[in-house]
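Dear all,

This email documents one entry for the complex benchmark we are building for the journal club exercise. For each entry we list the sequence lines for every component of the assembly. Then comes the predicted three-dimensional structure of the complex as a token string, followed by one or two observations. Please use this as the template for your own entries, and keep the labels exactly as they appear.
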Amino acid sequence: MTDKRDEAETDDIPAGMLALDQQLCFAVYSAAHALNRTYKPLLDPYGLTYPQYIVLMTLWEEDGRTVKALGMTLGLDSGTLSPLLKRLEAAGYIHRARDRSDERQVLVTLTGKGHAMKREAVGIRRQIGKATGCSLEALQTLTADLQALTGRLDAGAAQDDAA
Amino acid sequence: MTDKRDEAETDDIPAGMLALDQQLCFAVYSAAHALNRTYKPLLDPYGLTYPQYIVLMTLWEEDGRTVKALGMTLGLDSGTLSPLLKRLEAAGYIHRARDRSDERQVLVTLTGKGHAMKREAVGIRRQIGKATGCSLEALQTLTADLQALTGRLDAGAAQDDAA
DNA sequence: CAAAATTATATTGCGCGCAATATAATTTTG
DNA sequence: CAAAATTATATTGCGCGCAATATAATTTTG
């Protein structure tokens, strides 16, 4: 973009020491996997995966959303959500139905089992909180920093699309 | 574990506001996806996925590792690595060969193309750095916090295994 | 109002990530 | 040293996550 040339000298990184940006990427990658592993034994008894649990959390906040609305909140498209929602329905947690006033849309609503799961989530939340071993402030800071990072990354991607 | 009862009142979270620990989990989840999306257009021209790129980075640090050693570093098992490495070999980036002194092990080494990719990585690294939009200090703090989090999560999981 | 464009969801195919299992090589045990 | 246990890798099956495509409903355009 700029016509500067003289900032190209990060060329070689001392052996045994990754560049910081690579470290960050790997740290996010590893943390995501570690969280997944931590959730797994807590969710297995309910037959839920972590992404399915996230969808339920979203519905606990606001029930009766469309697939599209869920996708916007979670950053997922129908290619991921459609089969996931079918499994959640098969497991009895949600119900899917075409919107009568716009038959293109599918409304996703919690079943009794889906609502009941919210109470079970209290224990899960407590265990995850314990496992992170973070103070409330640390949790807040880290969350805010990650949200800011995600925002900047997505903003950059959107800009690239425009070009 | 403790016999206290009087800390069970996080039961209900105000509507429209997720508990902080859930926010953190979702923030990590979203950041990982955002990073993946950012890497994708940069790696596509080379026919590489982000996990494959991570494996290459690991080999740039120390070539000639076993599958097991790679797995320890990356937190992945052979179920993930075996097919991934086969694809990296098919793409010409690495070579796989049984260790002559212990035929159970497979040694993974970079090809010329695999080594050459390290130079291409300089540009990718710069673009990712720009996309994160972080100061060096912010990058360092965030990385360290995430590494600490991952460490605590994995330590907890290891403890559970022992029980 | 009919044709074209847009929108919402679903499907297919591919690459992880992981659990469960299989296989072959090596080490330990009796 | 032979049998049993362990170790390293590979394979199968399932659920994401995403790109590409298909389909049906709705909206826009002429």
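Observations: The longest helix of chain A spans residues 136-162. Residues 33, 36-37, 40, 66-68, 78-79, 81-83, 86, 98, 102-106 of chain A lie near DNA strand C (CB under 10 Å from a C1').
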